[in-house]
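Lab notebook: predicted structure, single chain.

Context: the supervisor wants predicted structures on file for every construct in the current expression panel, including those that have not yet been purified. This is the next one on the list. No modifications to the sequence; it matches the entry in the shared construct table.
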Amino acid sequence: MTARTAALLTVAAVVLSACASTTESSTGRTATEQLLLARASDRAVEGLVLPLPTGASVFIDDAYFQGEGTRYAVSAIRGAISDAGFSLARNKDEANAVFEIRAGALSLEQMRRVFGIPEMRIPINETFNVVSLPELSVYSHRDRVGVAEFSGFLYEAKTGAPLGAVVPMIGTYRIRSHKAFMVVSWGQQQAQPGQRDPGSSWTEF
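Prediction complete. Output recorded below exactly as produced.
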């Protein structure tokens, strides 16, 4: 094989390899953000009880439970109601009681602490054009927290008579990461999905 042939084959290989690409979809929130909210929702409903006799039929009214990530939270509430020994009604007519739920919070908080000079944006003229100065830190840590707060009230399905209220249920899930000299990172970088041993996915209520 001549040097000219080898060069042509190399160029052809580069051109052909450059033609391959992968397309990924992008959702509104990252997987870590979604997991933070999911774990916070699970923790918020732990131990949920209602002032009803065991076995009572409950309709979960989520008409006013709106926002991003609320469908998972509603399912977590429904699961907690089932776990507490109540049955889930398909509509108000089949229920002994209606549990109207609402979300006080279902979102993320983030806090970053820097030991050194944080990143800054400084105006440089009278028209407020700015220049960005990079961070110069010895150590920093970052907290990302999923926060869920739910509450609701209970009323008799047929008459609308009040039966009681559920005080705010609060759950949080936090991950913290560290960085030294803006280079060396350690600690939890992302939220992990739930883990289980093979064969342990089924739990009886």
